Amino acid sequence: MWALKGTLIGISIFAVGAAVFSFLSYRNISGGQQMSVDIRMIPLTTIYNPWFWATFVASTVIGLAIARSWPGKFSPTFWIVLAIIDLFPAGMLALTLLLVFKLKELAKHVQ
Fold this sequence. Notes:
Order of helices and strands: HHHHH
Largest sheet: none
């Protein structure tokens, strides 16, 4: 059970970190000004980046280490707070997927 809990903690650390990093890196690129982001930039900074996957592995290992070394049981409040915190990256993912699907739909009508 500790492996499942540790994996959940690690993926949560990774998801929040990736969302915040993406948010801040796009802001730093523009110098704080408004800008548009090409949809092809998102996979280049995530799934095609080897540091993205190295961070995923490191976050999972850290989550497993936290769950394994934790003295006693985790409080149910901890899991509720973790689920609420995970809503931010899940919302960003949902908005990105919605944008991709809408752009594909529009591209069909343009051609």
